[in-house]
Amino acid sequence: MKTLVQMLGRLSGLLAVLLAASPSPSAAADSPTLDKIKSSGAIAVGHREASIPFSYLGPDQKPIGFSLDLCAAIVDRIKEELKLPNLKVNYTPVNSSNRIPLIQSGTVDIECGGTANDKKRQEQVSFSVATFVSQPRWLVKATSGVKTAGDLKGKTIVVTQGSNAVGFAQSVNAREQLGLNIVQAKDHAESFLMLNTGRAAAFMEDDILLAGLKAAAPNPDALLFLPEGYAKIYYGLMFTKGDAGFKGLVDDVLSKQMASGQFEKTYAKWFTKPIPPKGENLAFPLTDELMARIAHPSDAVD
Fold first, then answer.
1. Which of 27-31, 34-38, 64-68, 210-214 has the lowest mean pLDDT?
2. Burial 191-210 (b: 16+ CB within 10 A, else e)
């Protein structure tokens, strides 16, 4: 009996030593990105210049937005993990064409924008757990009498040339046999103009983009969303592919914010309240799809 007690004591002691020596999940794995940040004393944060409300330039021309607030919490964790309280943050503007190459080259450590996570992009870069869920939606004039997508049967609708919405509109038209006349405008401004002047009964595009256009309109209440939403598009913070240590840190920060309620407070700040520079309110509350990802954080895509 004495021998058994001594053996259990030794095992308990060994377990205590192992637990004490175990690093936090975010720092447990080797991370080339964290090594680079530690050796340089700086982190390169990629941001967009006009992706309201995710990442854009504020009145003082400094980057602000929902994704920038999330990244600020990640930078704070990095300062703590690497014991670098004076870590320098270098902001680098990115666009749709160069954001992935800048991540791949190591010029940008993390992109804090509004980038959609999909399987093709996952072959080139990694993404955090989802921070936003978008869907292609229909925007119509409130006085049009159109209440559902079915009411668009036989009407002219507009999409923007080169947008993913072109394919979505064609697919919906074929599947639901709506007989739509699908017109492609040269840019979002022209598409929006066609809707407002009555040359198109509806404008299909990413819901948050439509929300921004609606909020900036002279009379936002004159426009409304139809209830139908289509394929889910997941946004995430983007960083170099295969860096498990860095991804672990980023996901841990975001998951803890989601569990604590801080993520929802940050979301409300940018999507349901007046924001710079003109005090517009996107009036875009949390969707059921994003709530599901807040409850169960994941970087999975459909």
1. 27-31
2. bbebbbeeebbbbbbbbbbb
Domain boundaries, position 225: 136-229
| 148 and 187 fall within a common domain | yes
My answer on whether 59 and 88 are in the same domain is yes
The verdict on 89 and 33 lying in the same domain is yes
Give the residues across from 51 on adjacent strands: 55
pLDDT tens digits for range 110-133 = 999 988 898 989 999 999 999 999
Q: What is the number of domains present in the chain?
A: 2
Return the amino acid letter for 274.
Answer: P
Asked if 32 contacts 240 with a C-beta cutoff of 8 angstroms, the reply is yes
> CA-CA distance, 161 to 183, in Å (whole number)?
9
Alpha-carbon distance of 223 to 282, in angstroms, equals 13
Calculate the alpha carbon distances from 119 to 27, 38, 123 in Å.
Answer: 26, 31, 7
Supply 106's token pair. Answer: 């190591």
In a domain, 217, yes or no: yes
